[in-house]
Design brief:
This protein has 435 residues and is mainly β. It has five helices and 29 strands.
């Protein structure tokens, strides 16, 4: 009596895969092949510990005294880069979320000033935006990741909490990077998050009318909330958001132990990595995502995801729309996708960057190792694809932070712990090396 439901489930699964793939998947899995030598990516910045800058030496001394700055507390998580349209030097932004106390600000840009620990960072857009530590909800409380869109705007995801104390509602804050002025703010309604549980850690923005022909008005943002196991969709034009939580957004307990360079820590997190099918590939567009504590790579069509009415039935809503693309057998933190549809991801083991053409099945034949370095690529928590306006070429930017040493308490601030790395995408894919 169970045969008919099983047949229907198999038929439904195959239909979803057929809608996603141009070619049907080949399930003949091959073992990964690893190069005998390390493939290095050039280091742009590196720190033993984060080197903060302050408006004055007096301010630095004051926050050290009152506990709002503990040099051993900050952990860099994300990197993004802005190339001014009219030329000029790139601006490099990093985030240092307030996991706990002792973090003076959580969004910054990297300066040319060199300190004893590395390049000095300065608060963005200003020190005053961060100085209330959650007391002023018109400022920034705790920023985990950002997304700079093709229109020159930085989308900032502020979790609003410190140590799971919800000081302010989670919010999306947008700055025009040409002027550094606030141009948009959206505070999530209580229906979109769980106070004392939610911790929003990633934002991906999809511009459906990008330049040069578009006006940058058709925008959806996707927010990852791994601690409450959900993805929130924000319709910018409609000023509305809705929450998606189901079995596909949950972690797998078998992947709750994360091992990097021989050190392990426990973390059972839901959705973290987000990417969307690029425009112009001739494919039905999907949100491609995975939980940190899971081996599955998943996808859901944007036309279904972006329609709020499809999600009104809660936990069981639109389950048949989700596609299980494949399994890695290991965890991967952040990922990013190039305009040609190559999805990059930093594996925890082996410690390297892998690439996958999203027009092919997600299996060991098609997921290729591109860079391998057990020292510089330990836990890549930040990953972005950035297009240079001067020549239109794409760059892959990474931030690695040795998160396993922070969890296990073995971090040594006499060593290099945090790195920002960069490589030209085409050079990386064609094996020419990064310069």
């Amino acid at each position: 009596m169970f045969i008919l439901p099983l047949v229907l489930w198999i038929a439904s699964t195959n239909l979803c895969l057929a809608q996603y793939f141009i070619n049907r998947p080949n399930h003949n899995l091959r073992e990964f092949k690893f190069p005998s030598e390390n493939k290095a990516l050039p280091i742009v910045f590196e720190w033993k510990n984060i080197q903060y800058g302050f408006p004055s030496e007096q301010e630095r001394e004051q926050v050290l005294r009152n506990g709002r700055y503990n040099p051993d507390s900050p952990i860099p998580i994300d990197i993004d880069v802005y190339y001014p349209r009219n030329g000029g030097p790139a601006r490099n932004f990093v985030t240092t979320p307030r996991f706990g106390q002792g973090v003076p600000y959580s969004l910054a840009y990297v300066t040319n000033v060199q300190g004893r620990n590395g390049s000095e960072i300065q608060a963005y857009p200003s020190y005053q935006w961060h100085s209330s530590h959650g007391a002023n909800c018109d400022g920034l409380t705790s920023v985990y990741r950002v997304h700079i869109d093709p229109c020159g705007r930085m989308w900032v995801l502020d979790s609003g909490e410190i140590e799971f104390v919800q000081h302010c509602a989670p919010q999306v804050v947008v700055f025009d990077l040409a002027t550094d002025q606030l141009v948009h703010r959206y505070r999530l309604p209580e229906t979109s998050y769980k106070a004392k549980v939610s911790r929003f850690v990633n934002i991906l923005v999809d511009i459906r009318d990008p330049p040069p022909k578009g006006q940058c008005n058709e925008v959806f943002a996707y927010l990852a909330d791994p601690t409450s196991k959900a993805i929130v969709v924000y319709d910018v034009a409609g000023q509305n958001s809705w929450r998606i939580e189901n079995k596909f957004t949950y972690p797998d307990a078998k992947f709750g132990t994360h091992t990097v360079a021989g050190e392990s820590f426990e973390l059972l997190d839901g959705p973290l990595a987000l990417a969307v099918t690029p425009l112009g590939l001739g494919m039905r567009r999907h949100l491609i995502f995975h939980a940190l504590s899971n081996e599955l790579e998943l996808a859901v069509p944007l036309d279904i995801l972006n329609n709020a009415t499809n999600w009104k039935s809660g936990f069981s809503a639109s389950l048949s729309a989700f596609v299980s693309l494949g399994r890695r057998g290991v965890q991967c933190a952040s990922h990013a996708i190039s305009r040609r549809g190559i999805l990059f991801c930093g594996f925890l083991e082996p410690i390297g960057i892998f690439g996958w053409d999203i027009r092919t099945p997600y299996d060991r034949q098609n997921v290729q190792l591109l860079a391998l370095n057990p020292d510089t690529l330990q836990f890549v928590s930040g990953m972005k694809i950035v297009q240079r306006p001067a020549d239109g070429r794409e760059e892959l930017w990474l931030l690695s932070d040795r998160l396993q040493k922070i969890f296990t308490g073995t971090i040594d601030y006499r060593e290099i712990n945090y790195r920002v790395l960069r490589c030209d995408v085409d050079d990386l894919l064609q094996g020419r090396g990064c310069f």
